[in-house]
Amino acid sequence: MAIYNNDKDPNDIQWEKEQMELQILEPRRRFEQWWEQNEERILAEDQLNHDMQFKSAYTKQGDY
After folding, report:
1. The whole model's pTM is what?
2. pLDDT of residue 46
3. CB of 41 within 8 A of CB of 27?
4. How far apart are CA 54 and CA 52, in angstroms?
5. Helix (H, G, I), strand (E, B), or coil: what is residue 35?
6. Distance CA 5, CA 12 (A)
7. What is the pLDDT of residue 63?
8. Which pLDDT score, from 0 to 100, does residue 4 have?
9. E strand or H helix that includes residue 18
10. How far apart, in whole angstroms, are the C-alpha atoms of residue 33 and residue 2?
């Protein structure tokens, strides 16, 4: 991170600010893009896991 002073070119300051924002925002953007592409499958797998756990608990009780 730069030390801001009067000797620094305003364009350099703006560029550094943009780079810091990219470092913060880029991982979130990539995650959101990944989630958008995989949300339906992940939620379906989660529901299946839940259903299987419920069925397993149900059969262990001897009610099945």
Report:
1. 0.50
2. 93
3. no
4. 5
5. helix
6. 11
7. 56
8. 55
9. helix 10-60
10. 31
| CB-CB contact of 2 with 13 (8 Å) | yes
Q: What's the burial of 22, exposed, middle or buried (CB within 10 Å: 0-12/13-18/19+)?
A: exposed
Q: Look up tokens 């350099």; give the residue.
A: 12
What was the pLDDT predicted at 7? 74
Q: Which residues of 43-62 are buried (b: 16+ CB within 10 A; e: fewer)?
A: eeeeeeeeeeeeeeeeeeee
**Of 32, 31, 5, 28, residue with least CA distance to 16:** 5
pLDDT value, residue 20: 92
Token couple for 39: 């949300």
pLDDT tens digits, 13-48? 999 999 999 999 999 999 999 999 999 999 999 999
